[in-house]
Write a structure and sequence with these properties.
The protein has 255 residues and is α/β, with parallel strands linked by helices. The chain contains 7 helices and 11 strands. It folds into 2 domains: 208 residues, Alpha-Beta Complex (Spore Coat Polysaccharide Biosynthesis Protein SpsA, Chain A); 44 residues. α5 crosses α6. It binds cytidine-5'-triphosphate (CTP) and the ligand C[C@](O)(CO)[C@H](O)COP(=O)(O)O. Belongs to the IspD/TarI cytidylyltransferase family. IspD subfamily.
Length: 255
């Protein structure tokens, strides 16, 4: 069984909104709902655990349980850091679950392809993360804003989610991190910390994390483009049909 855990218990400080950014509207619905609906379209995933801020658990559970089209979902309370929120989610995973996917609630533009690629790699090797190669030159900066060095760009990738793991591996990695007082910015780093290999699979540049207001503008544009593409597809079908009719007429007059 595959369970997806969605850390959604952040404060969204960088967004600067007076509420948790995962409830901000993106196009026609909240960011969190986009995320959950995308995963609900993925048949390989069986159930969800949404990790909400302690005072948001009850209202979020009420809304999610009343919405059609969302997979069976538990809502549990998060912690003060993303890592602690994921840990709280992990503690609620069913004993029947053998693979866990962790996906930021704040990444609403995730595609089923990327989710499926991560799952396939977890089945093969136990630990897989979606990521994309960096497109800018990255420099390490030291004191007084001085450049220390320029790592080879071909070795640098930006980590995204979903990050998927065999359940026991991820639970072990979180337990070890707690014992060692190790705090990572993603789940893969905890698995790396216990020395288990993690494989990267190609993510999607559109799978952005909504962090600041500009990201919302970009996400709206991507969703708008999808709507435009649909209109374009309809127009091309109409044009093709018109051409077919025209060709048929020409053919008839030639006979
Ligand atoms: N204590 C926390 C912190 C973050 N998250 C979640 O982890 C994801 C990625 O975190 P980030 O983008 O950093 O979100 P925030 O912590 O909300 O943002 P900020 O740092 O700007 O406050 C988000 O879906 C967020 O809700 C969480 O569940 N628990
Ligand atoms: C897990 C993550 O999405 C990988 O990019 C990210 O590290 C979490 O968010 P943060 O902004 O780094 O807290």
């Amino acid at each position: 069984m595959i369970t997806a855990i969605f850390p959604a218990a952040g404060k969204g400080k960088r967004m600067g909104a007076p509420f948790n950014k995962v409830f901000a509207a993106l196009s026609d619905k909240p960011i969190l709902i986009h995320t959950l609906l995308s995963f609900s379209r993925c048949s390989a995933v069986d159930n969800f655990i949404v990790v909400a801020a302690p005072d948001e658990v009850e209202p979020v559970a009420k809304v999610l349980h009343s919405l059609p089209g969302i997979k069976p979902c538990k809502v549990v309370a998060g912690g003060t850091e993303r890592q602690y929120s994921v840990y709280n989610g992990l503690r609620q995973v069913s004993p029947k679950t053998d693979i866990v996917l962790v996906h930021d609630a704040a990444r609403p533009l995730i595609s089923p392809n990327v989710i499926n690629n991560v799952i396939s790699e977890v089945v093969r090797s136990g630990a897989a993360v979606a990521a994309v190669p960096v497109t800018n030159t990255i420099k390490v900066i030291g004191d007084d804003n001085m450049v220390v060095n320029t790592p080879d760009r071909n070795t640098l990738w930006m980590m995204q989610t979903p990050q998927g793991f065999k359940k026991d591996l991820l639970v072990g990695a979180h337990e070890q991190a707690r014992q060692d007082g190790y705090l990572g910015t993603d789940d893969a780093s905890l698995v790396e910390h216990i020395g288990h290999p993690v494989r990267v699979v190609m993510g999607d540049y559109k799978n952005i994390k909504i962090t600041s207001p500009d990201d919302l503008i970009y996400a709206e544009a991507i969703l708008g483009k999808k709507a435009v593409s649909k209109v374009k597809a309809e127009v091309s079908v109409a044009i093709s049909n018109a051409f077919e009719e025209m060709k048929a007429k020409i053919f008839k007059t030639r006979i």
